[in-house]
Specification:
By secondary structure, this protein is mostly helical. The protein has 5 helices and no strands. It has one domain (3-114).
């Protein structure tokens, strides 16, 4: 395998995981509804919990790509199960999670074949 493709298999899932965490964090801005700041900040912090969970999975998966594959896959399934009546929402949130899980799985397969895991 070319060094360029190998580097892509290493960095693509990590960057995708960071991008998904930032994307999910954008939804926390929904907490700012024009109310008093003292009430809005705790709501904002609560809305950031899903992004923090995604960031935690990225952090662990940085060294262990299989945990990233399982973690992102599990998050995708959990989200899809939590909103079964909204297929558009499932595609919007679970889609990037599944893509990231797949990238981590490919990176894990490559690392295992190279003898690094």
């Amino acid at each position: 395998m070319s060094p360029r493709l190998e580097r892509l298999l290493i960095w693509a899932p990590r960057l995708a995981g960071i991008a998904v965490a930032l994307f999910v964090a954008l939804f926390a801005l929904d907490a700012f509804d024009g109310g008093p700041l003292a009430q809005t900040l705790p709501a904002f912090a609560i809305h950031l919990i899903p992004a923090a969970i995604v960031a935690a999975v990225v952090t662990v998966a940085w060294r262990h790509p299989w945990i990233g594959a399982l973690g992102f896959g599990g998050l995708a399934v959990a989200y899809a199960a939590s909103v079964p009546d909204h297929p558009g929402w499932i595609l919007t949130i679970s889609g990037p999670l599944v893509v990231t899980a797949t990238l981590f799985a490919l990176g894990g397969i490559r690392s295992r074949r190279a003898g690094r895991v």
